[in-house]
Known about the structure:
The complex is a heterodimer of chains A (about 160) and B (about 190).
Chain A (H helix, E strand, L loop, with lengths): L1 H12 L3 H12 L3 H4 L5 H5 L12 H14 L2 H43 L12 E2 L2 E2 L1 E5 L8 E5 L3
Antiparallel strand pairs in A: 1-2, 3-4
Helix pairs in contact in A: 1-2
Chain B lengths: L7 H13 L2 H23 L2 H18 L9 H22 L1 H8 L29 H12 L4 H8 L3 H28 L1
Amino acid sequence: MVSCKIVNALYAAVPSRLFRDVLIRTHLEKCEACQARLVSRQEAEALFVKPKDVGAVGGLWRTIDRRAGQETIVPEKRLAGFRWEWAAGTAMFLILAAAGFWLLRGVQTGAVRADYARPADRFEITYINVGGAPAQAYIYQPAGSDMIIVWAGKTS
Amino acid sequence: MGKGLHSSMDEREIVAGCLKGATGSYQEMVEAYGSLVLAVALNVLGNREDAEDVFQETFIQVFKNLGRYDPGRSFKTWLLTIVYRRSLDVIKKKRRFSEFAARAKSEPAVVASNPGPKHGGPEPLPSRFLKTLSPKERTALCLWANEGCTARDISEVLGCSASTARVTLFNARRKIKTFLENEHGVLQNC
């Protein structure tokens, strides 16, 4: 009885399956007192539905027969579908890859342009032509601002 | 495997007939093992509708993959392995959609009413105590109690080691005993 208590305490304390299996095989399976704490085969049997209780399976056979008849064709269909899926998938991948390459190329070009469009420290206008004739140019810079306005007017 | 429903000779003949593609052998197989498959599925899943789905899926899979069956092994064990795996699939699917089902239950107008048992009269169902066990424990206990399976047989069906099967079965037996005792105590106190 003392050993039963020790074994049960060890079983509860050590969650290793191998160790528990050893305890089952060496003690729990053989000890009558420990076996009394487990449901017997007869008691357990009463809880389950037995094969003889489930009734005739003839109706279910007809469903299987119908399904089996349909599904024998399925593998061929699935194979054909499989090839089409691969072809469509590959085409889609190539399209996406090309589009991605094109877009990334555009972004890269934009980035280079943005680099060139940084604010200039110095600029120069050498010539302004309006309506095919040299224009009159005025340059303004508002006080306290870095902004420069170039005004070109047609010469009369 | 424990209690044999059919001799190994019958088993071999049925399997050989199915491999030759004889429709009669397919039907013979369903008639020979159908009740067993349905009972195990019913005991693992706890409801007839899902058990019938598993029944169909199992036999379809068996017919498709019979070429892969190793004649050195017990056909019944191979069959029960498929039943167990298909049942687990159903349980997993149900778990995944449990949230949706809970929402659908609160909207009775959307959900069709339960048609009830198909064949008239109450359907045999496993005990409610079994719901306290995991599917693995339920299967182990069912195979041990109903089919007289040993830990080794159970381990083949569950796809685990014999020691794991032994521990699973032991835990299941102890849990059920505790529940039965508690229930008995409650009934006595009433």
